[in-house]
Amino acid sequence: MHLKVKFAKPIMGEPEMNAVREVLRKAHKVPLTNGGRVRIFEEAFQMMVCGGQAIATSSCMAALHLAFMCLLKPGDEVIVPALTHPATAHAVALAGGRPVFCDAHPESGNLDPDQLPLLLSPKTKALAVVHFLGKPAYMMSCVDFARRHGLAIVEDCALALGAFHSGRHVGLIGDVGCFSFYPAKHMTTGEGGMLLTRSPELAEKAIRLRAFGYGNDRDAGIEEIGLNYRMTEIQGAIGLEQLKRLPGFLQKRLSNAEFLRDTLKSLGFNHILGRDYALSVVLDVDRDEVRKQMISVGFETSVYYPRPVPHHPVYKCSGEWPVAEMICRQSITLPVGPHLDHGHMKLQAETLAEIVNAHRARGRGGLHRPPSGPEIEGARA
After folding, report:
1. Can you state the percent helix, strand and coil of the chain, rounding each to 5?
2. Going along 188-277, which residue ranges are E strands?
3. Phi-psi label, residue 272: left if phi above 0, alpha if psi -120 to 50, beta otherwise
4. Staple partner for 141: which of 113, 164, 228, 332, CB 3.0–4.6 Å?
5. Per-residue b or e along 118-127, where b marks 16 or more CB atoms closer than 10 Å to that residue's CB
6. Confidence band (pLDDT; 50, 70, 90) for 357?
C-alpha cells in the first residue's frame, strides 16, 4: 500500500553524510567518543536556546535519568503527568524515586496544576513537567507551586524543541530540561538527547554521572556510581548539521500545524491538542476503527499515548485519571512534520472528516466538544 502521508520522516542529506565521513576519516587520530565534536554540538545547542549549559546524552531518557539522579534520594516522590511517555516515570523510578501521577488538563493535555496540592506530601521533592505535543505547559503555575514548596522542576522537552514560554526557551524555566533527538523529533542524531541546566553544580554532577562517575581529575577516583550515557562523535556531527536546518524545520512544522488546525476546525473538529510536533484530535467515535480506515487509504497516524502511564502494570497504581484516560482512548494524532506540506494537511483533514462523518451517520456518536477552562499559558516563537 502506498502511503500518502507518513507520520514521521527524518530529513538528512549530503551535509550530514559528509559530516559522518569526516569523523570516520579521522577516526585513526581522533577518538569516536570524547573527540571534541560533541562539545561543539553542545555549545551550538546552548546558543540556539539562548542559555544554560548543554550536556549531550545517548537519549532523552538518559538525560531524564541523569536529571533525577542529580536531584533525588531513595524514596523521594516526584509528581509526574499521567499523560506522557513511560520514560518520564521510568527515569524517576530508576533514580530511586516514586512517581506520583497527576491528571491532564482537557484543553492542552498538559499537567493540570490545579491538582498539584492534592498530590503533595512530605516526600515530594520535584515536579516532572512535560510539554505535551510541543505545547508549553502551564509553567508559571508550576513554578509558583514549586517555589512555595521547595521543589525542583524537570522539564521533559522531548516534543518541544523550539518552544518558548514567556520569552524563554522551554528547558530553561525549571531546574533541568531534557530534549530528544529520536528520528521522529524536530531534529535527529539517529538517537540521542540533551540535558540543559542553568545550574553549574547540576551540570558538573550530570557530566560526572554521564561518564561512570569520573570527574575532570581521573586520578582522584570515583566518588559515586555513574553510567555510560555519552553521545558519540558521529551523533554530534549529525547534530551540528541538523541544528543548521532546525529553523527551517520549525517554520515548516508551525505553518503545517496552523494550517491543519484551521482546516480541522472548518470541518467541525473543535477539541484539538498540540502545537508543532503533532496535533491530536479528540473524537467520540471509535478511534481505533478510524485509524484502521485512515491507514487503509494511505494515511499514517499515531496515538499519544496508548494508555496513561499509571495504567501500565509495572506501576500497579490505583486511582483515576479521567482526562488522561479520555485523551488516550479517544484521540488520534496527525503529523505536521517538515516532510509534508499544506496539501497533505488538507488531504488528511478531509479524509479524517469523511471517515468520522460516516461513523456519525451510522449512529456512532458525534465529535467530542472540549470542556471550558482557563486560557492556555505559553507562547511559541
Report:
1. 40, 15, 40
2. 193-197, 272-274
3. beta
4. 113
5. eeeeeebbbb
6. very high
Q: How far is Cα 45 from Cα 49, in angstroms, rounded to an integer?
A: 6
**Same domain for 251 and 230:** no
The answer as to whether 293 is a domain residue is yes
Instruction: Identify any residues that bridge with 152 across adjacent strands, giving them in sequence order.
Output: 126
Q: What residue type is assigned to position 22 of the chain? A: E
> Amino acid identity of 101?
F
Helix segments in 285-375, DSSP class H: 287-296, 322-330, 342-361
Q: Contact, 283 vs 290, CB < 8 A?
A: yes
- 282: containing domain: 247-361
Q: Residue 264: give its domain's CATH number.
A: 3.90.1150.10
E-only strand ranges, 103-148: 124-130
pTM of the model: 0.94
Go through the chain and tell me how many residues it has.
381
More confident residue, 159 or 364: 159
Question: Do 63 and 200 belong together in one domain?
Answer: yes
Tell me, yes or no, whether 147 and 74 share the same domain: yes
Residue type for position 71: L
Least confident of 36-45, 231-240, 276-285, 367-376: 367-376
Q: Is residue 27 part of a domain?
A: yes
Q: Are 308 and 82 in contact (CB under 8 A)?
A: yes
**Residues 234 and 296 both lie in one domain:** no
- Asked whether residue 163 falls in the same domain as residue 231, the answer is yes
